[in-house]
Design goal:
InterPro entries: DUF1731, Epimerase_deHydtase, NAD(P)-bd_dom_sf, SDR39U1. The protein is of the alpha/beta class and about 325 residues long. The protein has helices at about 10-20, 50-55, 75-95, 140-155, 180-190, 210-220, 240-250, 260-270, 275, 285-290, 300-310; strands at about 1-5, 25-30, 40, 60, 105-110, 165-170, 170-175, 200-205, 205, 225-230, 235.
Length: about 325
């Protein structure tokens, strides 16, 4: 298959590009800064010659959007919104204009669309969409609006021959440098991998190999459309999540952090506390109902595998053949 990945140069794009290329597919990445074969320039806002790559392709997986690993200033929040909405809009325009449109368009979204909650998990059918929770920062609500507008733009696209799926993805855990797992592992190595603000907030995650397999599953299943949660079935409180990671890395102690300490740490990392403090209790209702099986459903085993791979004790990402 020919697979086009707009915005495919980040961590998640690298995971997909590597695995899908190893599987024998022709992968083309659309990027603002092409630097190698199979990368094509686009600006993420306007139709251009890049649209020829979409015409005649089999699959489009749009990952484009300004990184959330930044301070949530008004300017950065606007950039997050604009980059996601504009890229989804122009991808839809390219598909609509194609003489031979792709059969499926997977649009990246985020598990952040769900409410901050501890009481029950969020699946696609019964999950609570966020934005109206009491006593949460305004910018948390803005993050939900970004996700909603992201999905809405895909839904508005006039692409009757192309099936559309919104990937409500949790944090993708891979051993690649600079990814979220690498950052968390770095905190553990420094002795800072303890509970944050009590650690009751839930962490939703997905192992990179299961993320790839879920994408392949959704590409193959012509009967699945709309929002799909890409998250392992075992979310867990942050205190337990970090305790497991410390055990996998052989670090016995992790200093706890109060909320204000987390704010200082996020400032130092040029990130924001939403990534640490929002409770994302998300489960993969549709994937499980449709028969998808996870190779890494629980965090203890997944953490051990990721640590081994990060240390080079096993080979590069393996493409699972079953779905």
């Amino acid at each position: 298959m020919k697979i086009v990945i707009p915005g495919g140069t980040g961590q998640v794009g690298a995971v997909l590009d590597r695995a899908l290329t190893e599987a024998g597919h022709e992968v083309v990445v659309l990027t603002r800064r092409p630097s190698r074969d199979r990368e094509v320039w686009w600006d993420g806002e306007h139709l251009g010659t890049w649209a020829r790559e979409i015409d005649g392709s089999d699959v489009v997986i749009n990952l484009a959007g300004r990184s959330v690993s930044c301070r949530y200033t008004p300017a950065n929040l606007k950039a997050m919104m604009d980059s996601r909405v504009h890229s989804a809009r122009v991808v839809g325009e390219a598909i609509a204009a194609a003489a031979s449109p792709p059969r499926v368009w997977l649009q990246m979204s985020t598990a952040t669309v769900y409410a901050h909650r501890h009481d029950a998990p969020n699946d696609e059918a019964t999950g609570v969409i966020g934005g109206a929770e009491p006593d949460v920062p305004d910018y948390w609500s803005y993050s939900v609006e970004i996700a909603k507008n992201w999905e809405r733009e895909q839904g508005r696209a006039d692409t009757p021959q192309t099936r559309k799926v919104a990937l409500r993805a949790a944090m993708v855990m891979s051993p690649d440098r600079g990814g979220v797992f690498d950052v968390l592992s770095g905190l553990v190595r420094l002795g800072l991998g303890g509970p944050v603000a009590g650690g009751a907030q839930y962490v939703s995650w997905i192992h990179d190999q299961d993320f790839v397999r879920a994408v392949e599953f959704l590409v193959a299943r012509d009967d699945i459309a709309g929002p799909v949660n890409l998250a392992a079935p075992g979310p867990l409180p942050q205190r337990a999540f970090m305790r497991v990671l410390r055990a996998a890395r052989g670090v016995p102690v992790g200093l706890p952090a109060t909320k204000w300490m987390a704010e200082l740490g996020a400032l130092a990392l040029r990130s924001d506390t939403e990534l640490l403090l929002k409770s994302r209790r998300v489960v993969p209702g549709r994937l499980l109902a449709e028969g998808f099986t996870f190779d890494h459903p629980q965090w203890p085993e997944a953490a051990v595998d990721l640590v081994r791979r990060a240390r080079g004790e096993v080979g590069s990402i393996r493409r699972a053949v079953r779905a």
